[in-house]
Amino acid sequence: DPDSGDNGFLLYSLVGGQTNEFDINERTGQIFTVSVAGKAGTFNLEVQAADRGTRRLTAQTTVSVTVDSSSSSNIVMLVLNQKINVVERNIDEVQRVLEDNFGWNVYVVNIYSKEFERKARSSTNETQVWIIAFDEAHQEVPAEDVKRKLREQKDEIEQELEKVFSASISAAVGEAPAAAARPELTAAIVLGVLFAATFIAFLAYVLLDLKRKRKYGKQDSVKKVEIMEGIDNPWAVDKNGSLKSLEKPEHMYN
């Protein structure tokens, strides 16, 4: 904005889109991630720039951010004893200091603080800067090599950062958390567990049903035998060994 004074002082904000995953530096307009762990896809953010004049003028544009589901094992966490809003304002200088000391290209992957809310950003004097380095052949530098450089040149890096922040700086190497499982992999595991549980339950039901049928089958056989023993068998033999007559005795017809 070519205007001067309040008419030329711009403030940036996110007015639509996935504001839980991203945030914006209201003075510089720099967009950064808050939390996209385990997420992938394209996020459309509506960004607004507004001046502070009496007749406030605004302009909006859409920023599309694509998050890849793949992850790198060579991301290194650098922990600075500074507030997150201070680190955000000076992140370009932090990147320059690291590149000068490493001799590699350094990219800032994420800036993180335990305090997410905008109002609480100045309450935590510890900020994590996640970085990844690339050599001259544009290949990722192994995380252990980056950590070694950070430890070997810790004093030089802290001295340069003190000039940037105009304060005493502590730069420590942190341990980046393991990458979260991909959503589709997690879904496959859950479905597999559910299928296995269902199959086991079905198998148990079949076995119990067979056992029940066998039990009641034996009881029915015993009852049939008892019933047959209680009925005169026309083919049974009498005590003299002769076959009993099929005809009823005469007195039964009287």
TrEMBL record:
GO MF annotation: an example: calcium ion binding
- Limits of the Cadherin domain: 1-77
Protein's UniProt keywords contain Transmembrane helix: yes
Q: Name one GO biological process term.
A: homophilic cell adhesion via plasma membrane adhesion molecules
Where exactly are the transmembrane stretches of this chain? Answer: 185-208
Q: Pfam families of this UniProt entry?
A: Cadherin
One cellular component term (GO) for this entry is:
membrane
Which keywords fit this entry according to its UniProt record?
Answer: Calcium, Membrane, Transmembrane, Transmembrane helix
Q: Its principal location?
A: membrane
Read off the CDD domains from this record.
Cadherin_repeat
> InterPro entries per the record?
Cadherin-like_dom, Cadherin-like_sf
Question: Could you tell me where this protein is found in the cell?
Answer: Membrane
Query: Is Transferase among the key words of this record?
Result: no
Classify the source by domain of life: Eukaryota
Protein's UniProt name = FAT4 protein
Q: Which organism is it from?
A: Cettia cetti
Q: What is the lineage of its organism?
A: Eukaryota, Metazoa, Chordata, Craniata, Vertebrata
